[in-house]
Task: structure prediction
Amino acid sequence: MTPTLPESGLPTGTLVLTPAGERPVEALSTGDLVIAVSGTAAPFQRVADIRRVALAGPLVRIRAGALADGAPRQDLLVPAGQGLLLDGALVGAGALVDGLGIVAEATEPGREAILLLLAGHDAVLAEGAAVETGLPSPDAAPCLPRAAPGGPLLALLGWRAEAMGWSSRDATPEPAPAVGTLRERLSAFPLTPAMAPALPLRPPR
Result:
């Protein structure tokens, strides 16, 4: 029995690039050609097997353009364990969640994904983003090393999120500009002790 990577796969409706154009992942069949993008094997590979897998953990929403220009072209939903081909390594989608361009979402009960297996381990383009396919056999080595996201990659993703104008859903709102006199602002601050009332000036005798 061919093993699956934990919590990986593409939800139905995800468009995968083939030599004949993009097709929904659920419309692919065994023997169909897809475009492989790891660079470690032939650019065209046949689908060796297709499996439906249950999604038990959270999903990760990668917003359009969060990874690079046109990657993905529209929001891409993947399981947290789904590998993405970035900077010459396979990085888990869950490790990239920043609450900005890449956010976690709850999984609907009973939701399934399609896991593609090719003759050799590789990555395909899904909505314009390079995503890992399943391991073709228990002893198969991954096409590229698996790695945690490094500082430069995280900085690049953060820069893209800022350039796109995304903000964190749970970010603390900026305080309103202060108004009023200094005495009014200080007396309104909860940690400021009560101020003595101003005494009228007495004319000198």
Q: What stands out?
A: The longest strand covers residues 44-54. Residues 37 and 123 are 6 Å apart (CA to CA). Residues 1-5, 169-201 have pLDDT under 50 and may be disordered.
